[in-house]
Amino acid sequence: MQYPNLNVLLHSDSEAKHYFETLPDYAREQISSRSNSVNSLASLKDYAQNLLRGDD
After folding, report:
1. pTM attached to this predicted model
2. Distance, CA of 43 to CA of 56 (rounded, Å)
């Protein structure tokens, strides 16, 4: 399901909210700065995985 933006996604989807809350601060900040581009759990996970790729 797609939502208008990250804020609506997090408010409406408890799984997305939980996933977002487990991310490191810097990843949450980066994702929040592009909140209009994150409109589904899948897009949230994709974006987070791209950000975290360098953390290994």
Report:
1. 0.90
2. 21
